[in-house]
Amino acid sequence: MTADPQTASPARWAAPAPAAPTTTPSARRRTAAEIWIVLGLSLGQSGVYAIVNILARLSAETPLADQTATLNASQSERSLLDLTYQVLGIFFALVPVALALYLLSGRASATWRGTRERVGLDWGLDGARPGRDIAWGFGLAALIGLPGIAFYLLGRVVGITVQVQASALDQHWWVVPVLVLAALQNGLLEEVVAVAYLHERTRDLGWSRLWFVVTSSLLRGSYHLYQGIGPFLGNVVMGLVFSWFYTSRWGRNRVLPLVVAHTLLDVVAFVGYALLPAAWKTTLGL
């Protein structure tokens, strides 16, 4: 009988050993500059725009609760052209993910495959690791999803959350596949950059786990500010859970469970919203 890989080879399932912190001032400056560049090309840029957006919303004459934020908007009235724009948008949004992994692979003796294994973006040939990642992903999605919906509805009632239209695409044959790809893109971009990459680089700078968790969570909340104060707070909580889990003995520095959870949450939000009858949306205030 084949032994359980989780019990037979404990070292195989342990989190990677911490990298030695960058010590020289010039190396620390280069690492800090790299972090700013990666974030400036991706989530940090979105965070700055979201801050400006929420200031504009709060200073507008229309109350925040009466304003709308639209996700996955149509780019053209022509079906194939709209599809082309959607696919291109998803593709180019993933370039910062490739950049972050490429930069991490620049470590001495690091390889592309080794980097993916280090941050848990690989699925081994054995069935245990994919099953474990998927199971944790579903668990995290359930933990975040139901309270997230309740928090959104509460924010709408209190008036600190705008009406979020999760999909404004016209009815085309490709809508559901594109929304699923958009959900996967969000999961990869946010979890790889805001959690896996940021954890590796802040650890290079000698940051503590607490500072990483707080920074990652505030970053996640910042680029959701365009949806209102409620989503900002909700995503900070999500960030605390995800970044803590990633660095815990259960998460083992594997980002794939976070990607699975995030993708599931967005698939439910995007596809569910697109397929929900208009009357239901009105009743639920969506």
TrEMBL record:
The chain crosses the membrane at residues 35-56, 83-104, 134-154, 232-248, 255-276. Keywords: Hydrolase, Membrane, Metalloprotease, Protease, Transmembrane, Transmembrane helix. Residues 1-26 are annotated as: Disordered. Residues 7-26 have a biased composition (Low complexity). Pfam families: Rce1-like. InterPro entries: Rce1/LyrA-like_dom. One of its GO terms (molecular function) is metallopeptidase activity. It comes from Isoptericola luteus. This is CPBP family intramembrane metalloprotease. Residues 173-267 form the CAAX prenyl protease 2/Lysostaphin resistance protein A-like domain.
